[in-house]
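Self-study notes.
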Amino acid sequence: MTRVVRVRAPGGVEQFEVASVELPVPEADEIRIRQTAIGVNFVDIYQRAGLYPMPAAGIPGVEGVGVVEAVGASVTSLAVGDRIAYAGTPVGAYAAERILPAWRGVRLPATLSDALVASVFVKGITAHMLLHRVYPVAPGTVVLAHSAAGGLGQLLTRWAVHLGATVIGTVGSEAKAASARAAGAQHVIVGRDADFGAAVAEITGGRGVDVAFDGVGGSTLARTLACVRPFGVVASIGQAAGPIPPVEVSELGPRRSLMLARPSVLAYMNDVADYRRAAEAVLAALEAGVLQGEGVPYRLDEAAKAQADLEAGRTSGALYLVP
């Protein structure tokens, strides 16, 4: 038997319950791992709320770190005792132990702690997708990153600055502004109700940014479109502030000539080559110190509190669960 946190029915954090379940024996191409740290992400909140469907077991979560305890008959890439990270589907990370497809497991270097990897892995892969696939960021690129003090926001900022970009970050408070600046943001716009469009215009001399990353959603996306130069890119990567109203094609062009992306990191990680390439890049960036950010720990049975804190914006940086 193993302990899990599952969702009784789609809704708020009150729908969580701690339960014990029996794990099956790994299939030929599967592994069983004992988890030591589990990343908490906004996608987990979307799963709990019913925005993203989950399997019948109702266990959310898409990443973790742990030790391999059993391997299927066909598995040669990993062995019992290997310390690994994983990310992506199948959903079900909020558990002390779990079964995984063996190809998801990525061996970890001894130099990286479980807590650090669990805090960064999925968010780092998301940053890799955004900075290399959605818009290839290079020296001279000007980036607008909303929620720049959040777990993903800080990683995006650090990696983009390392690639030579100028980052304009938005944050909700002066305390979070300090976190964004520490991550390398050269310009920080403070305040949930700030006129970031006017601020971006002033900072860029009216040109606009090359690419904007918006995980806020709600009414923010429409305002973000006005911040991007002609033929620039807006990437809508979440909706922490609520559903995004429909976007008229006329809002993108021809006058503005914008490109709007709605990339899914889960889809990105379903391609084996993309997943392995991004995972290796994230681990290398962690070892080199380009990416940082060990998060705040919560016990597995505190998953409801962790999600509530993340959803309400009471945290800066990443969160992870300890079984």
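Second protein, same conventions, sequence then structure:
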Amino acid sequence: MILNRRTLITALAAAPVLSTTSGAVGSSPARAAGDVYASNTALYADIDLVEGVDYGRRYRRHPLDGVGSTGRSALARTTVIAPHGGGIEPGTSELCLAIAGYHPADLAPTPAAGPVHDYWMFEGLRSAGNAALHVTATHCDDTAARSLCGGSLNVLSLHGCRPSRAGLAPEARAVLVGGLNTTLRQYLMEEFAAVGIRAVTASGDEEIAGLSPANICNRTLLGMGAQLEISTELRAAMFAAGKNTTADRAAGTLPLFWSFVHAARTAIERVETGQRVL
């Protein structure tokens, strides 16, 4: 895919500005079904919540190298995000870090030769009751998340889901692949199949399929990204038994975890290889 910078800028200027709920500017955000908060902004404004105690935010933006005539793009290629990390959808924080190229236990570049990607995550830090901190992806308005995704060509968003939400058997170990970037979705499906992980095309409601332009995964320079909904059983099988905290999970990753990471990173590499910016 050859991308002209002027084309990108023109597309961004012409794109409609979306509110948190994908309506017109100035519309009042409404809570998604099952959510306590209408947006990240509303959650951060709750004086009963304490950052660092109830929830946390982690992100990393890498410097861009626009010097020289090597053909490298001064645009961020890919950002990896976990909007419901920590105890909200366990395992997604660790996957976010590893797919971005950092070992979740100590943040050491893994593999050491890279590449590394920008990342962002919102995490529930409570010992219990983290589900109340869930903000649906179409309502994600965290400033860092919007900035990182909006400056990237690609976004891969990681979520957890119950198999029943996806129409799967309760014990199913599967990942549902959604989002508007059909090329990245295809590569993800192929790479998961190559390592023996069951991948299914996501369908049904927006939270699972990730097809709304307002979904944080699609708020990219190209207006499209990819979303992975990973079943509870598949995530549980990625970590040693009894590893129920963020620190424990980070230190207890199993081979299946790294197979998943390898597949996702390979898919990202393939889509980036096909993106040439003039």
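Instructor comment on the second fold: The mean pLDDT is 88.
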